[in-house]
Amino acid sequence: MSKSSSKVLLFLGVILISINLRTSIASVGPLIPYIREDLGISNTAAGFLTTLSLLTFALFSLIAPSIGQKLGHSKAIFIGILVLALGSSIRVLGEVSLLYLGTALTGIGIVTANVLMIPFFKARIPEKLGLMTALLSTGMSLFAAIASGISVPLAEGLGWGWRGALAFWVGLMVLALIAWIPQLKLSRNQGSAVQVPNKNVWKSTLAWQVTGFMASQSVMYFTLITWLPDLLIARGMSPTTAGWSLFYMQLISLIGTFFIPNLLLRLPQQSGVVVGVGLGYLLGYGALFFHQEWITFLALTVIGIGSGASLSIAYTLISMRTAEELTTSKLSGMVQSAGYVFAALGPLFFGISLDWLGNWEVMIWLLLGMTILFLSFGIPAGKDKKI
Is the pLDDT of residue 338 over 80? Predict the structure, then answer.
């Protein structure tokens, strides 16, 4: 196979992998009212669906680097997508127990692939690190938006129900597995540099700053995709319009996801970009206190661009704050493990507060608080240092 053909297959594989890393989660939020009604579960139990995925993210983020070292990144990523497809199939087959089991498996599959993609890029195609990171985050954000937007039309318009709407995405997972097969032929050590002695990232202040940044932006993202449709429905929107509003917020995020990585790589420090995004969050979340639809639309525009930028900043910092592939893999695992532990609390905390208080504004205050943490961790993490 020629070098150019190999690169084309690599790019295709990365794109197809990336589009599967958020659809199984993003498609759930608009369908929560249907799941809740069909299975007779509470808001807390419904919110736990996203929380369960994030808890499995947190646990298996610690294991994924070791799997990658043992099997090679390419094979481990393939296995991750296979587990994702299995979990996505199981969760629509029965009642609550299978829903939770399948959801847990989707989390395991997603995080295994997610953790290893960044070190895979650094080892395989370091000269295109900015572009590959942009493709990864853009694919994730684009299809998260599509999943949010078409979930209700699939369930209601086509009459598939919430089960059929969630099962729809398994087809794309199978395509990703097929497209990734050429990468399995690569030696697991191909592209790896000579490793320096192992570094304990858990003792690094900088590593914790990057982790805190990832945690705060993850809390904001996963709380919004889980509960934003319900908030808008409570304010009078139809379920379909609420789903498309979430779609719009994630679609507009592509501006941030695609352009930010290469911008960050050109800057000596990234703190200024973090400050700009943080100020946008404060403005956007504050505007959600107003119930006018046009203000909500403007708020979701600002929040969406910030959300896309935040994801790309987090992924890019993992690469920029490490000097070698092994440390990159360890930092990726740490950031996504500790980060998602805190991210898991967002949807669950708000689900509990909604059951107790019935007040949607609690979510807005939670998001504003996370923005302060976002700035507190992101500004020092954006300085030009390495672990």
Answer: no
pLDDT digits (tens, 9 = 90+) for 339-363: 777 777 777 777 788 788 878 888 8
Q: Check pLDDT > 60 for residue 191.
A: no
Q: Give the Cα separation of 57 and 24 in Å (integer).
A: 13
195 occurs within a structural domain:
no
Residue of 20, 107, 85 whose CA lies nearest to 336: 107
Q: Are 353 and 362 in contact (CB under 8 A)?
A: yes
Which CATH number do you get for residue 322? 1.20.1250.20
pTM tops 0.70: yes
Q: What is the pLDDT of residues 274-297, one digit of tens each?
A: 999 999 999 999 999 988 888 988
> How many structural domains does the chain have?
1
Instruction: Report if residue 130 sits inside a domain.
Output: yes
Would you say residue 311 lies in a domain? yes
Question: Would residue 386 count as lying in a domain?
Answer: no
Residue 182 DSSP symbol: G
**Residue 116 domain boundaries:** 3-190+201-381
Cα dihedral sign, 329-331-16-12: negative
**H-state helical runs in the chain:** 3-18, 23-26, 32-39, 43-71, 73-90, 96-124, 129-152, 161-167, 170-180, 205-234, 239-252, 254-266, 271-287, 293-320, 325-357, 361-381
